[in-house]
Amino acid sequence: MITNRTIHPQNDGLNRERRDGSSSFKESSVSLFTKFYVFSILIEPLQYFVLVPQDMSFNINANPSRLLQLIVLLVLCCKFLFKGKSIVARPFSDLNKNFTYFFLFSVFFGILGYFMGSYSHLNLQVSLNFMDFVSSIYARPIIEFIILLYYFIYFVVLAQFFLATKKDIDYFFRSFKIVFFVLLFVGFTELLIKIGSEIFWGANFEGINIQFHKDVSPGKRFHSFIGEPRAAFMYLFLGLALFSIMDIWNNTKKLTFFLTLIILTAIFLTQAVSGVIGLICAYFLLLFYYFRRLSIKTVIFFSSFIISASLVILVILYPSTVYGLIDNFLTVRIRGYLESSFYLHRALSNGEFVVGQIAQVMNNVYPLWHLWIEMLEFNCFHIFFGNGVGSSSIINNYYAKEVGVLNPNSAFIKMLYENGIIGILLFISAFLSPIKKMSVDYEIFRKLTFWMIIMLGIYFGHKSSTLFIFAGVSFAILKYNFMEKNNDLIKSGI
To answer: How many CB atoms lie within 10 A of CB 47?
Structure first.
């Protein structure tokens, strides 16, 4: 008897086609509806195309991706109302139940956090009409719950239905390659023009802004139309992960050494400090996951990682030993964060004004500082169970003495403050457990697990939709492969 926990190392690939060349399912051409869904998730990470700023649209970015998402959801609603057709998502299926547990955990401790005072400084008795309330910070905790659930449902759950056939998944990968290579070309071209215009003409070419409505340039850093360089860091790693999975899916070798080198170069040129933090998180996640499975190859891998990280640190601390271009354009920014962080504890302890480059990212510091103060007072409840979804923005408002949405950029800091250590562990299991439970092929199990851990680590460095997009595609492949395997077993009489 084959169960959904069985992994079959002998299965050669993803059973994309049956061995007689025919498909187990009747697959028609990709529908226009599916194409709308595919492009709604492909362009979601492209934050340059935010057309209406967050503070003008109920604290939710308005962009073309959201328009496509709205169309997809409206069509689904129309199909349900007029044709009786609906997508039934099972919250306690093997692919979804761990996230359901995490969400219920977040709701329970969010309610508990409200009664314990985590939202206490909000003056909820302020007279506001409905529209003002929805767009204000008072409704933000509720909106945070909705966003959390929406991201998983739209990017992960719906992907299992829209990417249900081989042709659907093939179409996604083809479309992704086109979008990814266009962004790669635009990003390198812009960077070369910036550097060339300064060297040869002494001109300061601003290039592409981080968002359509913002007259802000990130300087000589790779970002393309993805938006901020730290968002580009996430997207480029999503590219590496999807190319790796696509090679298994198509039994090809498209992720060549040359392409890998190009993508890694672009990642390095983003100069994203949050990306470095994300890689550190990924390192510890990998170390924790593979601790009981250490082998010679694993030791070599981690040794190489440590050596590479040490070289990066040397570049940061001793930039004079590095070639001039790197010294001028790549290390100054990161070194500024390190230098200003040395005085951070003293400034916070004395209530002084934080100065230096780290002052730009205090929204990632205040939640940690508040947890630290609680632990000094022997109050460890929140470090384990959190303060409640949306509370990190509130504590940032309190310390920064500002009014607005001030969420941490780092998902790890945000989740540590809002969900605690236990919540983070539940969140991790929501993305890793389904791979083990639904895998019927050892190679896809190994690759998906590795890349999911990487994407989780980088997500902890900077929150982004890319983790959910990768999870959606991965779970769709797992579901398709699992159904194909079971269908083959039934037809063979096993």
So the answer is: 23
